Amino acid sequence: MFSSISRIISIVYVVMLGITCNKFEDDHEQICFKPHIDYVIYFIDPIKQTIKIDSVTFLNGSKRQIKWDFGDGSSSILDKPIHPYKPKSTSESYKLSLLATNACGESIWYKTITIGPCLAVPKFESVVAKDKVTFHNITKIGDLKILRYKWDFGDGQIDLTESPLHTYSKPGKYMVRFTITTDCGENTTQEEITIECFKEVTCNNCLKIVENGWNIRSFSLTSVTGGITVEWNFGDGSVPVKSLSHTYIYQSEGRYTVIATITNECMSQSFKDTVNILKPKQDYEPFNLPNLSGSNNFHQIVYFNGNAYILNSVGYFYSFDLSTNNLEPLQSSEFIIDEYNKLKRDAVNHAIWNVGSKGARKFEDKIWKAVGGVGIGVNTRINDIDCDFNGHYFAIGTGKSIVYNTVSKNYFIITSPDRYLTIFNPVDGERKGPVINQLDNFSFGLVVNQLTGDIYFINSSGIVITNSMGAFKQFLSKTNVTLLTSSPKKILPDLKNNIWALMHNGSLIRINLSTLIGTIVWPSSINDFDVFNNVNDDPDLLIAGNGILKHLIKN
């Protein structure tokens, strides 16, 4: 605060001239004085930007009327007014005046006053580095008291620090507003900044192509940065597809250039690779088997002792001699035809079993014979059966699968989803094998490699392999085996380190266990198959399906 006292000293000289003739007479007339302003005391508050009139001293004059003019268009008739000036960011001069009047006249007092700055004048500098901008406050503050800083970055984001660092999510022009608030109000400045394109698309060996069939390719991208959308052009004239990944089926053979175009707000960049679509040479030469009576939808086929045994959808059952081409009907009243029907070749005793809801049947002397035993009734539902070297057979009714291992001389059984394979030795009795994490509710289809003793079974997502004592060895799935796109329907090993898998789409593939490469042997429509194992030669195949009944021989 500061005050000011202003005094005006006036000296009045009165000259009285008397003119007499015969007589002098004093009539004592009253003299009138106009107001004379001696002192004005006032205070200026630089924080509140106000002026306060404290007092006014008059030397003479009475019955005065006063009027203050504050120099900004405002006035007051109060003796001691308080007047606020509009806050300014710079110093401003005003003419403060006082008019005093009475019947005798008027007098004026005035003074030029200065109201200092109260509002800050925001100023800032910005440093842009790709998507990051550093804002520096360079405002001259002086004695002002700062209450708040506020930054509006123009992208919906706010910051209250003095000199912030801000990251923009996309390029463009942004109007940045910087506001400083002091005791007497706020003041704002603004400036437009430009964020240039800062997202570069990078893709270092990121185009991944997986073969899922001779004409099927799965395309995907790995280790891509800066991308938003991907458009695939498969090089065969088809309509491009926008997707992060895509599986495409080519309609014809050829060499195609695949282009993946990755786009973001800043740019588009394309990456190329080539694919060779070649229809594979037929590994196996098909020989058509003769037409059979009834439906041509063939459900099951099994090889036994030089013959193919075939079951169609209406229950006709045949034996076909592969060497003489002799066809013989074998339908019998003892044969089981229902939803649980299963044909199984007994590799140990060289026989054929038929199991289902009415028990088990064994094929002997070209007829089916019902069999029973301890815990097995003639009409008891049997899900699976197998035999050992001693001619003993074991059947299961509540489990899913059983197989006899000629190497370890144990039976392996999938009985429940407890992550164990039940191992049964006809001599020592039952015991549980090691824990197998891949065993789940879907597990079924136990088979054995009679040369190595390895056990194979199917689970919900692939094929599990154990050693001859049930210890886990390997898991095959779509993640590590080409063409094994899902859990198969049926599997059989051969003696050449292959697994043959019948897929749910009706295709038959061969998986090499050394390379984990799958090969399509038959493309579709298969219901069942069997493998003739031969140590020295590649195995022959029998396949049966809807309108398909063939004997496949390795070329």
User: Widest sheet: strand order?
Assistant: 1-2-3-6
Number of helices: 0
CATH topology of the domain at 2-14 and 31-115: Immunoglobulin-like
CATH architecture of the domain at 2-14 and 31-115: Sandwich
CATH class of the domain at 2-14 and 31-115 reads: Mainly Beta
Percent of residues in helices:
under 10%
Quickly give the structural class: mainly beta
Strand content: over 45%
Largest sheet, if any? 4 strands, antiparallel
Using only CA atoms, what is the Rg? 52 Å
Unreliable stretches, pLDDT < 50, 5 or more residues? Answer: 1-28
- The CATH superfamily name of the domain at 2-14 and 31-115 is Immunoglobulins
Oligomer description: single chain
Distance between the termini: 111 Å
Shape: rod-shaped
Total beta-strand segments = 50
Question: Taking all residues together, what is the mean pLDDT?
Answer: 80
Break the fold down into its secondary structure elements and pairings.
Elements: E1 2-5, E2 36-45, E3 50-60, E4 65-69, E5 75-76, E6 82-84, E7 92-102, E8 105-115, E9 124-129, E10 132-137, E11 146-152, E12 158-159, E13 165-167, E14 172-182, E15 185-195, E16 202-203, E17 207-213, E18 216-221, E19 224-225, E20 229-233, E21 241-242, E22 246-249, E23 254-263, E24 268-277, E25 284-288, E26 298-304, E27 307-312, E28 317-321, E29 327-329, E30 342-346, E31 351-356, E32 359-364, E33 367-371, E34 384-387, E35 393-396, E36 401-405, E37 410-414, E38 420-425, E39 429-435, E40 444-448, E41 455-458, E42 462-466, E43 472-477, E44 490-493, E45 498-502, E46 508-512, E47 517-522, E48 526-532, E49 540-545, E50 548-554
Antiparallel strand pairs: 1-2, 2-3, 3-6, 4-5, 4-7, 7-8, 9-10, 10-13, 11-12, 11-14, 14-15, 16-19, 17-18, 18-22, 20-21, 20-23, 23-24, 25-50, 26-27, 27-28, 28-29, 30-31, 31-32, 32-33, 34-35, 36-37, 37-38, 38-39, 40-41, 41-42, 42-43, 44-45, 45-46, 46-47, 48-49, 49-50
